[in-house]
Specification:
Helices cover 43% and strands 14% of the residues. By secondary structure, it is α+β, with helices and mostly antiparallel strands. The chain folds into 2 domains: 2-110, Alpha-Beta Complex (Conserved hypothetical protein from pyrococcus furiosus pfu- 392566-001, ParB domain), CATH 3.90.1530; 118-190, no CATH class. The strands form 2 sheets. Strands 1-4-2-3 form a 4-stranded mixed β-sheet. It has a two-stranded antiparallel sheet with strand order 5-6. The protein is elongated. The termini are far apart. 14% of the residues are buried.
Length: 200
């Protein structure tokens, strides 16, 4: 009898995580009006560009009771900007508004917990066969340059002391000592085969 109860309990748990993703008309679902996250036009456009490149792959979480989005409000805005008439949606049931609001806030907060392993990130961004760019990874240009060159995240690339002598066609780069070899290796690999001499 106890084994049967455990089996049924396990089945119920499995049923809870088997959520169907379906394409639903974007005008049938609603943005969460009390969403505390701010979505500027620039942010919406950045996500829209990633969706344009990679397609619609992540479902929006909607409370079946009121057809309101509690995860994916930014995605819905981006889909609408791109002209999507149908969007991927996972309909969920929640006990009440208190539960769905707690879920929405915890989901937003949970996305802030993780940090990057800088060495692994640099290795991925410098893997040529991946053809990674700021555009297809979601980084802005400054972040992408910092990550590829292993510059410190608090170092402002735009304020690097770069001196150029047009008569000699030389460019001197002033950089942190502990990043010197990484930058030299990157430049040599990037400009291999070209008539450019790099000295460190």
């Amino acid at each position: 009898m106890l084994k049967e109860k455990r089996r049924k309990s396990k089945v119920r748990r499995n049923e809870q995580i088997m959520v169907k993703v379906e394409m639903i008309s974007e005008n049938k679902i609603h943005l969460w009006k009390d969403n505390p996250r701010i979505h500027t036009k620039e942010v919406i456009a950045r996500l829209a560009e990633l969706i344009r490149i990679h397609g619609a792959r992540s479902p929006i979480i909607v409370w079946r009771k009121n057809m309101t989005v509690y995860k994916g409000n930014l995605s819905l805005r981006a889909y609408r900007l791109l002209g999507y008439r149908e969007v991927p949606v996972a309909l969920h049931d929640f006990k009440n508004e208190a539960q769905v609001v707690a879920y929405a806030l915890s989901d937003n907060k949970g996305s802030e917990y993780a940090m990057y392993d800088d060495d692994l990130l640099q290795r991925l961004l410098q893997t040529d066969e991946y053809n990674l760019t700021a555009q297809n990874t979601g980084f802005d240009n400054k972040e992408f340059k910092e990550a590829r060159l292993l510059w410190d995240s608090d170092l402002d690339v735009d304020e690097m002391k770069i001196k150029e002598n047009p008569l000699l066609d030389r460019i001197a780069i002033i950089c942190p000592k502990n990043k010197k070899e990484d930058i030299i290796r990157f430049l040599r690999r990037t400009y291999e085969g070209e008539d450019i001499q790099i000295k460190g």
